[in-house]
Amino acid sequence: MRDEDEKSGVSRRQFFTTVGVAAAGVAAAAALAVPVAQRRGLLTRPYPKVPQNQVILPPHGGKVLIIGGGLSGLQAGVELAARGFQVCILEKSGSPGGKLKSWRDRQFGPADDIYKSNPAFPGYVREHGVHAVWGFYNNLREFFGRYRWPLMDMPKDLSIYHFRDRDGTVSHLPNTQWLPPYDDLQLLHELAGLKHLPAKDRLQAVELFSRLATFDYADARQREYMDSMSFEEYGRRLGLSSSLVHKICDSLLEMAYFDNVDKASALTLANLIQLVAGSTRDLRVNLYKTPVAETFIEPMVNFISSHGGQIHYQTEVTGLLMRDGKMLGATASALPPQALQRCSICGGLIFAGMEVGGECPYCGAGADMLRGIGAEEREERRFVADAVICALDGPGLKSLVAANRGVLGDRDYFRRIDKIEAKAVFVCNLWFDTRGPWERTVQDEAGRPAICFFATGFRHLGITINRAVEVLAGEDQRFIWSNEFLDRQVTVIETQIAKTQLVEGLSTAAIADLCYAELKTVMPQLPPPVSAYVNRWHNYNAYHVGSESNRPAVQSPIDNFYIIGDNAFVPHPAVFMEKTNVTAKWAVNLILDKAGLSRYRITILPSGTPSLLIDGLAKTRSVFL
Prior knowledge:
This protein is an alpha+beta fold. It has three domains: 12-48 and 168-283, no CATH class; 53-99 and 294-420 and 552-600, FAD/NAD(P)-binding domain; 423-541, Polyamine Oxidase, Chain A, domain 2 (Alpha-Beta Complex), CATH 3.90.660.10. It is 31% helix and 18% strand. It contains 19 helices and 24 strands. A seven-stranded mixed sheet has the order 7-6-18-19-22-17-23, sandwiched between helices. The protein has a five-stranded parallel sheet with strand order 9-2-1-16-24, covered by helices on one side. Strands 10-11-15 form a three-stranded antiparallel sheet, with no helix packed on it. The longest helix has 19 residues, at 576-594. The chain is globular and about 65 Å long. It starts with 11 loop residues before the first helix and ends in an 8-residue tail after the last helix.
């Protein structure tokens, strides 16, 4: 066996020297790994089973008001309804799901599409954007399994980690095949072979991964240190090559946090790498079954309703009610007569003169998603409860707190919320009446069509997905996003634009043209699109330097008022949709404790998988520079 790997140009001696004590001791550690193996056995199941979480209680009179019908609000509602509470959810838009919502759009697709000739055709599924469920989402997966709402299975040999640079460079990070704990070593070896990096810089990827894998989010000193600088500055201090920082790390940040290395805190990638480093299974993803509104969001709504709960749509909370230091409930103000419509997707109010070419002027949803104002919205509505959970996105939370300063008091907890920043993300979908350019050009390491690629070096393309691609995986397993496009000669490409400052204010057609021009550099034979839409979201969390210190704890200074979602802080290294689940369960446990129902608390699992390899790395590596 040659000492030099032909793929990476890195000698095995160099590789194992870089990995250090963890690689050298992995075999010995594996022999002593019984406790870790037991924990890994639970966490590596597709849906971890925690029997004590299986609780259904009869109604007992407790009332909880939840402000916001997004993912965290619905999950908290399900858990509380299952434990006998009367749940009332207030949602300002006309549809539940928040950043996970989907709906039907009859405008998308060719004007002469044969399906559109059928008046009963509901339209093609239009999503907030493609979302994936990472392997380290242990708590969200436990929730899925407990309520029997399954995800779409991804073939084990399909990897999403394909990098394409504007200069034509292509790199692949395949799913590992070695058995634990050696799979982590295989992953490190693959990192050392990324073609995006010059041969002399490839071991830096291993060194960076090894260092960030030792990050401990629960350690306040480490958390504050990594949040004190941008990732670009961290890379500069560490001496990382420009290609590693900008071609690999920047694309990962755009995919995960919709931000770039010059603004994103170093905490971002440290926390993400910590979560995926324990097992290569944590790097793999599942997808929601399409359409997510019908396979996951509606089942949650139905569960809450079937257990005595209510969800009020077109109900924007503007006021909070307090008495004697306790939260009593909330109010939705009467809408002015000048308000003509409300968007069912984003909840934005439409006044005269705000129409924009058949689209919602806020989010870009089609005009058929705009609804008239109901009579009940012209009057103030009051809602009371024993406890109140705020499950709003960043802008919504800031607005509610600012409007209720007199009620909430001059507390530092609420003042810091005003510093939370939001990030815009635009999701562009293009329909092409052809199949072939993607399949022939965008391929994985096995030469099959890739389901997506991480775009690096482009001005507009972010993570880019073919929603109509078909892949033959394994012996005869077929993968396709949705049956909508099964056996049809179409290509539907979604790109999630993180650099929205370059396209803010442009029309849908102009944004589609810019994305198409860059797609043509990847697929020269791609014809012009026949249809396009752009979802415009301005409510993602920004993870800039110092942001972490402004996140409010789930328990507010008001005993019966809680804040959940990815805005909130818990001393638990969860991110994204896993964090919405963890914070929802956290708030439910606090409410259970105060209601004298502690024996029905929800067990919160580690996010990510324990690893002796990472424990070994921590003996020689640190995030501190």
